[in-house]
């Protein structure tokens, strides 16, 4: 059974004039089908305005489809009686971690969500410890969030979601505001959660380097799914990616240009290490 199933999902925003009157509708998501199973690592790519963040908000019942249906563990996201079950199953991490932080110290911040759903105090303490250990932030449990780096704040935000014991975490542009070191910290933590804890990951991003670790990539363009496949399949289709206003990862781009120049370089190169091995041969 699918953990997340989107069936012919479309979503329209209401457009209003400066007086608040409805002047039309904008279709942000257009007839999208997705099937995600437990343990998958999915990347959703697309330029600004492609609909990827709007789609992501459907998985946590923050938005409901204008047309079609989204099921989480078999529950219809429009079913108000299942709202908290859905939000416990699928946690969201947003672009700015400070928007999700309310505690004066790290462990208080991570404890906030389980406290609000009535988890027993002893269980909360255990969850907070486990979650901070998973993202390698346990040594900062007594620190003020304001004293953390951007990457550390984002890892604390992920720990706050982990304390809910979710089956899936949706990360909406989680590294967009971070420097390279912070991006590396967050992606390393996300990969470990998927590899070690078997937590389903849905990574919404426009950073091609982050997407190479996914099991499957969906590329969105103008609200619909324009491409779907493994990272090797997607990044072997340079011209189609360009039509979607996306670039190849650096190693894949260099391999593509060398192949065009006449070198015998195979398709599907993703990393610098793979390219170096090919060139050394």
Folded structure, characterized:
41% of the residues are buried. 37% of the residues lie in helices and 24% in strands. It has a single domain (2-233), classed as 3-Layer(aba) Sandwich (Rossmann fold). Helix 3 crosses helix 4 (121-134), helix 3 (106-116) packs parallel to helix 5 (150-162) and helix 4 (121-134) packs across helix 5. The chain has helices at 52-58, 83-89, 106-116, 121-134, 150-162, 180-197, 208-211, 231-234, 238-243, 250-260, 272-280, and strands at 4-16, 22-36, 41-45, 67-72, 75-76, 90-93, 168-172, 200-205, 216-221, 224-229. The chain has a 6-stranded mixed sheet, sandwiched between helices. A 4-stranded antiparallel sheet has the order 2-1-4-5, covered by helices on one side. By secondary structure, the protein is an alpha/beta fold. Strand 9 (216-221) and strand 10 (224-229) form a beta hairpin.
